[in-house]
Design the sequence.
């Protein structure tokens, strides 16, 4: 024998990171799937209930009309004129953009129609109204 023990020859010299990568990817998928649900719970809009409500597409821009009558576009409060300007800019970049309007159930119908008219006036072709399932 040359003085090399069998234990020394079989020593692990590398760290196998495959299990760690698998765990990180699973956590990433879980966070990506639950992030939209967490942001939706933080809303102060009480949507009306509908028996045939559908979930919005993932590429949808969200416009909210809350109980106070404030218009919220992608998390920021805007006036009607500012909303129209922002949507026009977005339509120039992405003409096939979908817009989902989430209006509080306590808002008068006229307020909702005014916001819808502003959205249509900005050039948006695909508009949906959000509702909660019963």
Sequence:
């Amino acid at each position: 024998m040359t003085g090399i023990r069998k234990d020394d020859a079989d020593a692990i010299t590398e760290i196998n990171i495959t299990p760690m990568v698998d765990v990180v990817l699973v956590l990433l998928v879980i966070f990506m799937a639950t992030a939209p649900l967490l942001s939706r719970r933080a809303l102060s809009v009480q949507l009306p209930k509908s028996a045939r409500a559908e979930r919005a597409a993932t590429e949808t821009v969200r416009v909210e009309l809350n109980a106070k009558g404030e218009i919220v576009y992608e998390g920021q409060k805007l006036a009607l004129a500012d909303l129209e300007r922002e949507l026009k800019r977005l339509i120039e970049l992405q003409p096939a953009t979908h817009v989902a309007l989430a209006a509080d159930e306590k808002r008068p119908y006229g307020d909702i129609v005014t916001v819808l008219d502003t959205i249509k006036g900005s050039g948006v072709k695909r508009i949906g109204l959000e509702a909660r399932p019963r």
